[in-house]
Amino acid sequence: MKTIVLGVGNPILRDDGVGIHVANQLKQYVNDSDITIDEATTGGMNLLDLIIGYDKAILIDAINIKDAKVGEVRRFLLSELSSVHSDNPHDVSLQEALILAKKLGEKNIPSEIVIIGIVLKKIPYIFGEKLSPKIARSIPKAMKMALNEINKDIKISI
Asked: β-pairing, 73-77 with 56-63?
């Protein structure tokens, strides 16, 4: 099974880049030609282009959930979300991009898209690459969840 793990976010907007931090650390533990670990600083149609051709996609990103604590890590399927809106007024959400791709006949869409979300209360628009302490402490849990998703029996001590 070909799997892609994408850390999503903006690495220069502090906590918004947490998905990229997780993906970069995962690279140290995964060495399998069927698993691609990469980063994405984009969404919507461009994100769709990155996951086409894989059987499974695991997206690690900062999320905002009202009833969750900052730094909490949650797993859900993209299909479980009722609606996701793009933050970019010039792009569509990944869900909308998937619907369009299917209507246009695309056959190489991952059969499973998993989101591993690290909870932020709001996306910080403060420049910097360093994560806040609460968000940085969530990285080990997000890594373990991602490793579980790729079905690897990798023992890590974090």
From this structure: unpaired
In the chain, how many domains are there?
A: 1
DSSP string across 88-126: -TTS--HHHHHHHHHHTT-----SEEEEEEEE-SS----
φ and ψ at residue 11, rounded to 5 degrees: -70, -10
Domain that residue 96 falls in: 3-149
pTM for the whole structure: 0.84
> What's the confidence (pLDDT) of residue 65?
82
Whether 155 is covered by a domain: the verdict is no
Alpha helices in 1-84 (DSSP H): 18-26, 44-51
Say yes or no to pLDDT of 40 above 70. yes
98-140 tens-digit pLDDT: 777 777 877 899 999 999 999 987 666 677 788 999 999 999 9
CATH number at residue 83: 3.40.50.1450
What is the pLDDT of the chain when averaged over all its residues?
84
97 within domain boundaries: yes
**Is residue 82 situated within a structural domain?**
yes
Nearest-angstrom CA–CA distance, 110 and 51: 7
